[in-house]
Amino acid sequence: MSPLKVLSVTSELFPIIKTGGLADVAGALPAALSNEGVQVVSLLPGYPAVLKALGRIETVREYQDLFGRPARLLSATASQLELFIIDAPHLFERPGSPYLTPDGRDWPDNAWRFAALGRIAAEIGQGAVPGFTPDIVHAHDWQAALAPAYLHYSDMPRPGTVITIHNIAFQGIFPADILSELGLPPRSFTVDGVEYYGQIGFLKAGLQLSDRITTVSPTYAKEIQSPEGGMGLDGLLRSRSRDVFGIRNGIDESVWDPTSDISLAAPFTRSTLEKRSINKQALQERLGLEADPDAMLFGVVSRLSEQKGLDLVLAALPSLLTGGAQLALLGAGDRVLEESFRAASIVYPGQVGCFFGYDEELAHLIQGGSDALLVPSRFEPCGLTQLCALHYGSVPIVSRVGGLSDTVIDANEMAIASGVATGVQFAPVNLGGLVDAANRAKMLWSDHEAWRRLQENGMAAEVGWARPARQYARLYRSCLEEV
Ligand code: ADP
Ligand code: GLC
Predict the structure, then answer these.
(1) For strand 424-426 and strand 81-87, is the pairing parallel, antiparallel, or unpaired?
(2) CB of 396 closer than 6 A to ligand 2?
């Protein structure tokens, strides 16, 4: 099979800049795809953290006026990734989050900032960088979603286009009157183009104008085609359903490897699961929990947002903590949720321990030291933390939505009897559902043999990128046959 070149267009990339799972996916796919004969170069905005991380840099293109000021396109490598970086200080030289001002609002010029990402992706797609003309431009989420639109409205030959939806809740909607400033032609402002209820919809445009649409699990691919899950885009997705594919995410098994993880107090394997008790003890100590090896320890590693259903965990605490159980929570985001969990750690000293902020090491320790990981999301395109939990012998307790339902095998009667169960699922996503699930998990936990079986099954589950990478490679190739 001939080697294939892909430009991956993304607003975040692990380990350089990350706010969520998108970064993990964009960071891990290139290596996985290289095993499939696909060369990936990633295009990323030059935020300060990105410019700082670069190794060898070469300027491959200069712009006199990229939405108002001069800019450069750099070619570089960092963390073994091949990169193009948009060095445009007027757009990206800002502290903190890639998307938000220090006081938590969207940057007012986000339309231009991410139009620049799409526009330069389109130019690279059409041969602007000698030596790397991609066969496929693969855009991730709304921030990259104008790439296929610019390509569609250009008269020059274009590569194949794929867009991946990581979260349909974020759509990038902006006022109609900036259309020409963004360099989009008047004819693009139609229902078949970038127009979305009288405004410009970046994600809408990408979904309308890409050759293929993927999302990050088979179940989410179905959910977003329903009025409840589509958040306004279900009609469009249904009309394109032949081109919509669900490919579940993996985790990077070189980053998440319990046998050699330096963030753990005690690395372990499937046959040395008892060493997890050392991690549990370290975790209890780290978060001010009582040092009790016999207390069942629930973990949470999550953005604090409505999506993740953590208000249900708060409401379930009185029941969750009965019998001396504990909760270790790592989270960042919503202030109200943060305050509520802080208050809970005062009400339940030694039983609820929290850290608020972003902490990669603690995330690993929670996966390697907790007994069960709670993921009660209201919706979840794929979810990565339950995959990490499986791989680290923490039994996931998840709501039956999106990628959570595709990746965890519920410990129902038959799954236990057949020896295939890996976790606990619950539906509907409400307080009663979560409490029942936690009680079911407690019952299983009290049976040492049964619990160990769940852990071992989870650790044996295929959570890596090999299979999904094969599916992406096949999708790219099928897309090229048509362009
Ligand atoms: P989402 O992208 O919706 O936030 P995912 O489960 O796909 O959810 O990915 C979340 C990623 O971010 C995982 O790699 C998880 O370990 C990590 N993560 C979430 N919150 C934190 C945090 N507070 N500190 C460190 N890592 C976090
Ligand atoms: C989004 C989703 C999450 C998914 C991640 C990576 O942030 O919320 O479910 O795993 O993207 O695709």
Answers:
(1) unpaired
(2) no
